[in-house]
Amino acid sequence: MQEPLIPRKHRTIVAALMLAAGLLWLLRALLLAPNLDAERSEYPRLESALRELVEARGDGGAPIAAELAARHGVSMIEGRVRVVVVEQAGHAAIVQRIAALGGQIETGNGPWTQALVPLEALPDLANTPGLLFVRRPWQPLPLTSSEGVTLTLAHAWPGAGLGGQGVKVGVLDVGFLGYTNRINEGELPSGVITKSFVGDGSELDFWGHPATQHGTACAEVVHDMAPAAQLYLVNAGTEVEWSDAVDWLLAQEVDVISFSAGWPLGGPGDGTGTLSEKVSELVGDGVLWVNAAGNNARRHWMGLWNGPHSGGWHSFGPTDETNEITVTGGLQIQIGLRWDDSWGASDNDYDLFLFDSSLKEVARSENIQDGDDDPLEIIAYSVPAFGVYHVAIAKQSGAQTRTLELFSYYHDFHYQTISSSLVVPADSPGSLTVGATYWQDDALEDFSSQGPTRDGRIKPDLAAPDGVSVSAEPYSDGFYGTSASAPHVAGAAALVLDAFPTFSPTQTLNWLQDRAIDLGAAGTDNAYGAGRLNLGDPPLTVQRLEPPAALQGQTVTLSIIGSAFSPTATFCLSRSGEPSLTPLDTKWISPTRLTGTLNLGSAARGFWSALVTHSTAVSATLPNAFLVAMAQVYLPLITKNVYP
Predict the structure, then answer these.
(1) For residue 143, is it within any domain?
(2) Model confidence over 501-521: pLDDT tens digits?
(3) Total domain count, the chain
(4) Which helix or strand (DSSP H or E) is residue 233 part of?
(5) 615: how many CB neighbours lie within 10 A of its CB?
């Protein structure tokens, strides 16, 4: 394999440094990527990073393996590695096998089993029949009174009787550090319901990777938008725990779930895959899923393979075979590669490499794709010092026409592709996906991920404010990112469901899109969706009558329950072919209640509709709201005495 080409400025710097040190003869050796084809085939069902750990333990013992695990983002606890086993069949047998090897099952959902397995047992586990792959868990990436409340006009809704009363909103996130403090300060309601699905049993207030108030900030925004909604705070740290959390929220009969995180490489990006399909299933169960689009517009690159042959490097530019990122010391690089093979059936084998600023290889991912694998490579590397790092793609075998995609979790690429930069499951057809606009001027944030999805659908569906104020640290100087935007939409959805309790997820989405302020290109587009969230004036609604029925001939005092009633509002009962029943008097009690006295006299039996009208001729109707029943006639019971 030839060395990857890099920009001339970096080649010059590297050469000068080596010349000064008298080490110019090392230049080619540093640039060459070693060929480990023999090692690649030894454990084909183990992810590349896990194979490296197994080999490191064999060569240098447990301390060397532990050091490598920390450098590559592998979770190790007392010699056991946290893994996800991807199953094809035989779940019970795999569970038994894990136990027999000294492992501990943490959780399982769908095709995944999450477990802690002794490092030395990983090769044996990977040979278990029915097992497809053993890999690291996928950790969701957080997509980091709000000004958005006033900007979206949500502030007017609670005063009209629409604060989200009776609506259940789940806030699913990676961590809720400090949420109890926010309750004590009044930033969150006292009645929040909490649940942790983290495998080690950590409590919400202490878990995070690292410990984070990200979910706390998201919950604050939801509460600001919909102060009367019932909040459920739920955390999860892997895709398996996330699936468990979604199942639990569904069992709690929540109406809306807000998720301000995602996986840049959690699926193909076309709405398929376990994560995205689980979201689509929720729509059929009547749950609205609101997902942040992602902050990866500048952390994404996409293009056709451009290289000479198998065994060669991909060319990002005419003289450049690497894509650069600039990294601060002490942080982690996480880079992933996917391509457009079918997941679970890839037979085109590409590999991913990371070089430091001196062009020394520091990490690689060499999963094997031989016909029944995912088209996926992921590198995680802890950076010891500030510098420029270089990402390179090599092809081992297969077609030369595949479309490749790079995602960086934390750092911008030199070569960027803004389009199709959505995280998973924001690509799901069932997701109400939200992009980010700055609250002061509605400008689209340059990091806000954009569509289309890989199958050509427009995403995001809406945009919403970010840069807003919350109390949770470190966001008190401004909560930025699509993470802040998504809970604005989730809270808005709770207000809409308060006004229209029978709305389906699709009806709620359509209602919000119809009122959005169109930005960017005219109509729906892949940057803003239908536009920036705008609730507008609270709607006049009629929700029920108290009492709901009376008898013919009665005089009854009715209460009309609804929203946005003005002091000049009037009401009547109407029925096709009958004169309207108008109250003798109408009293405005509050924005949610009108009362009036009706003489039913000889009113026709059956159902009548309720009509509320404002002085501005705005009206709302509730069909079949009131039943006029036939008056009961009581006949005396006559007993005839019969004598023998």
Answers:
(1) no
(2) 999 999 999 999 999 999 999
(3) 4
(4) strand 230-235
(5) 10
